[in-house]
Each structure stands twice: as C-alpha cells, then as structure tokens.
Amino acid sequence: MSESHTARLESALAGRYRIEKKLGEGGMASVYLAEDVKHERRVALKILRPELAAVLGAERFLAEIKTTANLQHPHILPLFDSGEADGFLYYVMPYIDGESLREKLDRERQLGVDDAVRIARDVADALDYAHRNDIIHRDIKPANVLLHDGRPVVADFGIALAISAAGGGRMTETGLSLGTPHYMSPEMLAGQPPHTGPSAQNILVRILTETPRPLTELRHTVPSNVAAVVTKAIEKLPADRFESARELIDALEDPSFTYVPTAPETRATLSAPATPATSGPASGLPKWVTAATGVVALAVGYGLAALIGPAPAPEPSVEFTLRADTSHVMVSPCCGHAIAVSPQGDRIVYLAAGSDRVVRLYQRPLGQRQATAIPGTEGGRYPFFSPDGEWVGFFDTRSGVTMKKVRFDGAAPLAVTTIPAPHRGASWGDVGQFYFAH
Q1: What is the separation of C-alpha 113 from the centre of its chain, rounded to a whole number of angstroms?
Q2: pLDDT digits (tens, 9 = 90+) for 281-310
Q3: Which residues contact 220 (CB under 8 A, 6 or more apart)?
Q4: Containing H/E element for 32?
Q5: From the centroid of its chain, how far is CA 282?
Q6: Predicted local confidence at residue 262, as pLDDT
Q7: In this structure, are strands 320-322 and 268-270 parallel, antiparallel, or unpaired?
Q8: Closest listed residue to residue 111, CA positions, set 207, 219, 9, 10
Q9: In Å, what is the CA distance from 228 to each residue of 115, 256, 265, 297, 298?
Q10: Which of 17, 79, 106, 380 is the most exposed place for a label (fewest CB within 10 A)?
Q11: DSSP readout, 94-107?
C-alpha cells in the first residue's frame, strides 16, 4: 500500500483506530499495528487488498464475515471488528505480542516432540470446534498460527472462506488466489517437507506419485503412534485419512494407535475403470475436514527447513500413467498437450473422443474413478487451468480459433478472445492475464 493510500486510510479510520506501523503484507491483506482508540488497546488491523475489495463489495463481505465473529475457543484468535471506511474493507483482531509458528520454525528448524504434539493437538482442537460449527479455515499455515505465551492461537479463521463466499464466481475472474497455493502447514518435527523439487510443477507430480519417507526414518525419537498419525493423515485419498480433527486428536493421545498403509509401489497409476462415479455431499465441509486433519498431521511431522543428517540419495524417476475408462478414447493434438493437472493437484482434464467420435474435454477429480465430459467443449484443444483450479481454459477450433473458459458446474463456456492460428497452447496468469503461443 502506497504512502498516499496509508494517509487516506489513517484519515478514514480517524477516531476509531490510530495506525502505529505496518507489520506485513499477505496475499489477502496488509496488516498494521494500531491502537483501538475507544478501548485503549493495541490491535492487528487488516486491510483487504484494493483489487480484492473492489471485487467483493462491502455489504457481501461484511455479511459473510459475521459467521466467524461468533467463534469462541481458547485457540482461535477472536474477531474484534470489521467494516468499510472510504472504500477500504477491514477487520480487526487482537494483537499478539509474540511470534508466529513460522518465525519459530525459521529460527529453531525443529521442535521437541512433546511441544510439537501439544501444538498440533491444540490446533486440531480449534479446527474440530470450528468444523462442528460449520466453519472452515481454508488457510492453515505456520504464519497463521500465533504463539501466545507458548500456546498456539489460530488467526484469520474463516477469512479466506468469507472472501470466497462473498466474491462468488467473480473471484475466479480476478486471478486472485485465496489461501496458500502450496500445501503449507505448521510442520515441526522432520526438518524437511514430504516432497521437494525444483518447481511447483515438479513437486505436484511427486505429491501425486510418490510416498513420503516414514517419519521415524528421519527422526527415530518420534513415538510410533505419532508417526502413524502422520502417515494416515497425509494419505493421498481423502477416504483414507481421518474422518475428523477429533479422530486425529484421539489418535495423538493414544500411545497404542497404529496404522499400516498398503505397501507403496514404485510405479504410481491413476486408473479410471468404467464404473459409475459417486457424488460427494453438497456441503464442502467433509472434504475440508479431512484436508484439515492432513494439515495438522503435517504440523506434527514435516518441516520446511534443512534436511536432517546427510543429504539423501538422488530420487528414482517415477512413471505416471493415466488410464481412461473404456467409454471413450484419449486423443492427442498434433502439436500440443492433451492433458492438464490443476494447480492444487486434485483434478485432471484431458481430450478424449466418446462413442459419437466427437473430441471434447473430460474432467476427473483424482478422488473419483470415472471421468465425465465437460458440456460445451466439443472441438476443444490444449486445456489449461486457472490458478485457483476452478476454471479450465481451452481452444475451440470448430469455427476459427477461440480461446474459451469453463467451470465444472455445467454452465456453458465463455469466450475469452479470438487468437491467430497456428497456436501451441496457453497458460493462465496469476493476475487474470492469458498467455498463448502461436
């Protein structure tokens, strides 16, 4: 935020909050240390990014954020206030005069086993309470776990969800990404992430195809039940993880808890037999709950710092195979890609010809076994995802070459632009631009 914006903000909040200094800036908001004039207390004042505020609108955002104001839990940082002032959307939380778990890990790299388990249990308890109240966090990471007198307090609870709900379909059109794009969590024991690589794409492939090293190989002092919790909660399929944060807590507190996964294979295959796909519940909560338990397990297990002990041997190459169901035949264009993987690693889109011999796009969530055709994508080529994974772009070659985008809710595709031929595919920038080669 520029100096002129800061001066305008100070003027807009005069009489309510007195800004002392800027503390930092994240993907969704700028954070200021401020004084609550009425109550004479220091607070963390968070101002939504201007482009985000413009998309949301004050009325919808403030209506959505009310749901998080009623959370009352010892490990959830409460919401003091929210509002709009001279075009600025803001929300206010207590100022914690301490450090975040991210800062602690950056300094210490690893934590003691007892401390790590205690912090993970407290964070899971906060998640369990929120889930039972139908509220999810959506952005659990070390920077959002604050340490107050050594006890963890989860900040920004539900803010990303409120922003997403307020923005609706318009959020995907801004190119803004809500939450943390990579699978980040408050890791504390291993001293290394479960998957590493030179790029986000490389890490994504490894997440999809590789099994992490057992935690006890990295640190032999980790209790067997804690290692088993981590193994179960980071399983690739949500159905194989804990059903709830409460189950994860119970396992952490049970010294006899064990979990023996199926022996991993060197070759990872994503198969799609021709069986009917089952639809999940209308509410996204169960999927978010299982994802949250995985986050907390990683909180117990893995770290983002340097490796423990000697550097590992070079990792073997991994062969990745996709098998389409027998109702259609995968095809490939002559000069470009025929398959795309979402940035979140949870969905694939590819070209295939059905029984009518028409080439169209098919999509398949990786937690399901069958792909389905995307309506309106006949003649589509070169699929590519939006940064948030909610849209897929493609080229319609039936009449000229038109770049289009489509959601996965059955709505008709939208035309983006007409481009010259020949073309070689495209990508979706993180601020709403499209890049293509021809």
Answers
A1: 26
A2: 334 444 434 444 444 555 455 432 222 233
A3: none
A4: strand 29-36
A5: 19
A6: 63
A7: parallel
A8: 219
A9: 18, 10, 19, 10, 12
A10: 106
A11: E--SSEEHHHHHHH
User: How far, in Å, CA of 143 to CA of 222, rounded?
Assistant: 24
Distance CA 75, CA 141 (A): 15
Token readout for 165 is 């709900």
Tokens representing 347 are 């969905």
Q: Which residues pair with 379 in a beta bridge?
A: none
Nearest residue to 173 via CA among 375, 410, 388, 330: 388
Q: Are 425 and 336 in contact (CB under 8 A)?
A: yes
Quick one: which of 73, 80, 70, 179 has its CA closest to 124? 73
DSSP string of 171-196, one letter each residue? HHHHT---S-SS------SSSS-SS-
The alpha-carbon radius of gyration of the chain (Å, integer) is 23
Cα–Cα dist 139/130, whole Å:
14
Q: Which residues of the chain have pLDDT under 70?
A: 1-4, 27, 158, 160-162, 164-186, 197-202, 204, 262-328, 330-336, 367, 399-400, 421-424, 431-432, 438
Residues serving a catalytic function are 139
What three-state secondary structure class fits 160? helix
| Cβ atoms within 10 Å, residue 265 | 9
Count the neighbouring beta carbons within 10 Å of the beta carbon of residue 282. 6
Q: How far apart are CA 201 and CA 208, in angstroms?
A: 11
63 neighbors 162 (Cβ within 8 angstroms): no
Q: CA angle 216-221-226, nearest 5°?
A: 65
- What pLDDT score does 181 carry? 39
Tokens 């398959």 belong to 339
Q: Is the dihedral of CA 108, 110, 115, 118 positive or negative?
A: positive
User: What does the pLDDT look like over 182-219, one tens digit per residue?
Assistant: 444 448 888 777 777 666 666 767 777 778 888 888 88
Per-residue pLDDT, 224: 92
Tokens of 67: 């749901």
- Six-digit token pair at 351? 């070209």
pLDDT of residue 116: 92
